[in-house]
Specification:
about 475 residues; mainly alpha; two-stranded antiparallel ribbon; about 0% strand
Length: about 475
């Protein structure tokens, strides 16, 4: 049997003052009491629950009376809730309604649209909504920071916008699935509203947890990175013979660059002291960095892309071998040095292609958390473009070796990104050179690995035909 309550009892149990309860009654936020006389009215458990809900929405969600009335009216009348009501309760930060009282300036609007901070489908008309103004308020705060903090914050916000779009879609899916199962939109919104503070705290906690995990994983992965595996694959004797130049290298300088382009690096160790002494300065620097990298680590710069990339690689090796504190700082410094050179600036196409390939191979081997996969792809594509733009200026065998290695590395990169068809196309182009050495074996091995993926029904059948040829 439902217990009846007098006003004094309702005030005591709900904690809401008498005057406020009368106000809620006048505003239609509470069910009418049962009146047994002109001055006598009784209340029940419904009124207790409704007062608790109103108090929560006012004090925890900072919702105005009009919005609360809209939410509760559906329950009172057996109807539903409008989109604005649901959207309001879905908000995470309860302070937002107080933070964007003044409209955002044009610079904030321009930055938000340029960086996609209002989602991929935002237009100038999108900026007129109150929700958009709350976003623009944050953008304005970012624009007021110092240049370095501003740029990093805008990049961070752009990444968040991309991922939060998916997050909101997932949240909305979970909410409406619950609503359909329960059959009551009002109950679903109430359940969602009560859980929002918990979810907000979870998001903040998980973000910190995930960032810490990324840094830890990055250091572990970088420490385990084996630089010996970052190498070009050499051509076999048959391919070298087929792609031999009409004339042999004229001097030790040309022979060294031929050995570099065909990945015959082990032969560099056999150069005599007299031959090393006749090398031009930058050629001598490359040989020393590949055979005795510790000799040049004190150099600030060697003045050409390949030399500076090999120098940065040597310093990265040293930083990752270190057991001292500050490994992450040294890693970041080394990577910054690695990214600084511009291989295309070298007028010698062989040196330019070698520089782009060497860096592409290094970046491809680094942990994905560093976000350098696109730069690795750009470098590897640059190898093909540099060679294509210098017909007759690169030794034929070197040209084949450089392009095939670049395409093999691209295939491996695409495979890690599950871009199976793109990986298959690059492998097909690498296989077209028909190498009979280590390079050809690596291409065939990668092709077999991709076919195994296809057999597990995770690779489109169209790609299997490319590798199978």
């Amino acid at each position: 049997m439902t217990r009846s309550l007098r006003m004094a009892e309702l005030v005591k149990e709900s904690g809401v003052p008498r005057e406020t309860i009368h106000y809620y009654l006048r505003e239609g936020l509470l069910p009418e009491p049962i009146r047994s006389g002109r001055t006598r009215a009784t209340y029940d458990a419904r009124h207790i629950e409704r007062l608790q809900a109103i108090r929560y929405l006012r004090e925890e969600k900072f919702l105005p009376i009009a919005v609360i009335r809209s939410m509760l009216q559906g329950d009172l009348e057996g109807g539903g809730l409008d989109v604005e009501t649901v959207s309001t309760v879905l908000g995470i930060d309860s302070s937002l309604p107080r933070r964007h009282e003044s409209s955002a300036d044009p610079a904030s609007a321009t930055a938000a649209l340029e960086h996609g901070l209002l989602g991929p489908e935002a237009t100038p008309s999108t900026l007129e909504t109150a929700a958009a103004q709350a976003v623009l308020c944050s953008v304005r705060e970012a624009l007021a920071l110092d240049p370095a903090s501003r740029d990093l914050s805008l990049a961070d916000m752009a990444g968040c916008a991309r991922e939060l779009t998916s997050l909101v879609e997932a949240e909305a899916g979970a909410f409406f699935e619950f609503a359909l199962e329960s059959g009551s939109l009002t109950d679903s919104v109430t359940a969602l509203a009560r859980g929002r503070p918990v979810v907000a705290r979870y998001i903040a906690a998980y973000r910190n947890f995930a960032l810490q995990r990324v840094v830890t994983h990055l250091l572990d992965a970088a420490s385990d990175m084996r630089f010996s595996e970052v190498r070009m694959y050499a051509l076999g004797p048959g391919a070298l013979e087929r792609h031999a130049a009409p004339t042999a290298p004229r001097n030790v300088h040309e022979r060294v660059w031929h050995l570099l382009a065909t990945a015959a690096h082990e032969q560099l160790e056999r150069l005599s002291a007299e031959e090393r002494g006749r090398l031009r300065p930058r050629t001598a620097s490359v040989v020393r960095l590949l055979t005795r990298p510790d000799d040049l680590q004190t150099e600030a710069s060697l003045g050409f892309p390949l030399g500076d990339i090999l120098l940065a690689e040597a310093r990265l090796r040293l930083a990752l071998r270190s057991t001292q504190d500050g490994r992450l700082e040294r890693l970041i410094f080394g990577l910054a040095e690695l990214l600084r050179p511009r291989p295309r600036d070298d007028a010698d196409p062989t040196a330019a292609a070698l520089a782009a390939l060497r860096r592409g191979l290094l970046l491809q081997a680094l942990p994905a958390e560093l976000g350098l996969a696109q730069q690795a792809q750009d470098d590897l594509r640059a190898v093909v473009e540099i060679l294509g733009g210098a017909p007759g200026r690169v030794h034929p065998a070197g040209r084949v070796c450089l392009e095939a290695n670049a395409r093999l590395a691209l295939a491996q990169l695409y495979a890690r990104q599950a871009r199976w068809d793109a990986a298959a196309r690059e492998l097909d182009r690498a296989a077209a050179f028909q190498d009979d050495g280590a390079l050809g074996a690596a291409v065939r091995s990668q092709g077999e690995a991709l076919l195994m993926v296809q057999e597990r029904d995770t690779w489109p059948n169209a790609a299997a035909g490319v590798i199978g040829r």
